[in-house]
């Protein structure tokens, strides 16, 4: 029986990564996360916070043909400020993007918990 170090054991585990960013203007087709070539993104949670009461933010996967049909989350201005646990896998090499139309000078913060498979 081989004894493994705690570091070796921990390195075998699939820990979540976190992406965060803050924006102060409307965005269209903005890339949040690009997976490593040949990998799949698995989104496990999204948090969006804004002081806006109008508009929405849509987070979606986009593949090579810029197919935007795989929506992960739509957060409306007045209903944001909540963490939403998810389990959504994109296609291989699909990029996570978002659009927003909250209005001018309406700041918002985006947090995405994910892993690559």
Write up what this structure looks like.
21% of the residues are buried. The chain has a 4-stranded antiparallel beta sheet, with no helix packed on it. A 4-stranded antiparallel beta sheet has the order 2-7-4-5, with no helix packed on it. It is globular, with a radius of gyration of 16 Å. The longest helix is centred in the N-terminal third of the chain and has 7 residues, at 6-12. The protein is 6% helix and 50% strand. It contains 1 helix and 8 strands. With 117 residues, the chain is mostly beta strands.
Concise description?
Helices cover 6% and strands 50% of the residues. The protein has one helix spanning 6-12, and strands at 17-23, 30-33, 41-50, 56-62, 70-76, 82-89, 95-100, 108-116. The strands form 2 sheets. It has a 4-stranded antiparallel sheet, with no helix packed on it. A 4-stranded antiparallel sheet has the order 2-7-4-5, with no helix packed on it.
Strand content: over 45%
Number of helices: 1
User: How can the largest sheet be summarized?
Assistant: 4 strands, antiparallel
| Average pLDDT reading | 84
Terminal CA distance reads 30 Å
Cα gyration radius (Å): 16 Å
Number of strands: 8
Given helix and strand content, the structural type is: mainly beta
- Regions with pLDDT < 50 over 5+ consecutive residues? none
Main sheet: which strands, in order across? 1-8-3-6
Large-scale geometry: globular
């Amino acid at each position: 029986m081989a004894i493994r170090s705690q570091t070796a054991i921990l390195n075998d585990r699939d820990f979540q990564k976190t992406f965060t960013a803050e924006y102060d203007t409307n965005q269209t087709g903005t890339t949040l996360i690009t997976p490593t070539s040949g990998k799949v993104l698995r989104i496990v949670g999204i948090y969006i916070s804004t002081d806006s009461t109008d508009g929405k933010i849509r987070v979606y996967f986009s593949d090579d043909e810029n197919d935007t049909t795989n929506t992960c989350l739509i957060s409306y201005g007045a209903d944001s400020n909540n963490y939403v646990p998810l389990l959504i896998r994109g296609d291989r090499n699909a990029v996570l993007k978002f659009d927003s139309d909250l209005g001018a000078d309406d700041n918002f913060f985006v947090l995405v918990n994910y892993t690559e498979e």
